[in-house]
Amino acid sequence: MAELARFAEHVAREAGELLLARADLPREIAEKARRADIVTDADRASEALIIARLLAATPRAAILAEESGARSGESEERWVIDPLDGTTNYAHGYPFYCVSIAYERAGVVEVGVVHAPAMGETFLAVRGAGALRNGAAISVSPIGRIGDALLCTGFHPADYSTNARCFAAASESAQAVRRDGSAALDLAYTAMGRFDGFWEFGLAPWDVAAGALLVTEAGGSVSRVDGGAHRLDGRSILADNGRLHQELGALLRKAGA
Predict the structure, then answer these.
(1) Which residues pair with 69 in a beta bridge?
(2) Average pLDDT score over residue span 171-177
(3) Best exposed site among 15, 50, 54, 254 by fewest CB in 10 Å?
(4) Would you place residue 241 in the very low, low, confident or very high pLDDT band (cuts 50, 70, 90)?
């Protein structure tokens, strides 16, 4: 698994180089189903590169990617890819974006990579082996009270009203709440203790597959916001340092989550 993790990290870095090279070029931007959900030529180019590299190395694996969707495979392996998480940030020149690649075997995420090229940071987790940032071990924060916590969230277009209530409740209770626009990177920051907790609704598997593994391997807790077990298709996520999980979950549910 270590060799496969190094390979996934290499592919994520290569895709990151592509994104950096295109960052200052004129962009082709198209809307998806909603005005706030966009795709750029850089998303598509990054995804094409990643898929080509992954299939060359694991030709029997299935693929689930944000832009091209699902591709069936002939084994229990599956790659879950977000070629550019934080597309709106990228399109506006805001450097909070990343490449996210996760490797599943028999439905269990075994490897997760989140690479933030503009930040010069690469996060890597292997199930049972811990989590790393740029090769050094990371762990979640020691914060034990929401009143001392820096939290983070994101707003899916279909869940604005629900999360507005949660955001207000968390803002009244926490030290501060941030909204940075890249769920995978928010999860990576939670894994290394920059954020003490993160929640969001309406997410897809490629948004959370790698980041959720980072959090658990760094010693944190991950579930759905309703308290149920985390699933890639669970459509909500609550991730934190473990010490805040019960209190933060109760606060969000009381707010109407």
Answers:
(1) 65
(2) 98
(3) 254
(4) very high
- Given this model, what pLDDT does residue 1 score? 78
Question: Is the C-alpha dihedral spanning 184, 132, 76, 3 positive or negative?
Answer: positive
CB-CB contact of 122 with 224 (8 Å):
no
Using DSSP's 3-state secondary structure scheme, residue 230 falls into coil
Tokens of 132: 């790393």
Whether residue 158 is predicted with pLDDT greater than 80 in this model: the reply is no
Alpha-carbon distance 158 to 214, whole Å? 27
Cβ-count burial 13-40 (b if 16+ within 10 Å, e if not): eebbebbeebbeeebeeeeeeeeeebbb
Helix/strand/coil for 125: strand
CB contact at 8 A, 75 and 61: yes
Q: Could you give all domains of the chain from N- to C-terminal order, each with its CATH number? A: 2-137 (3.30.540.10), 146-254 (3.40.190.80)
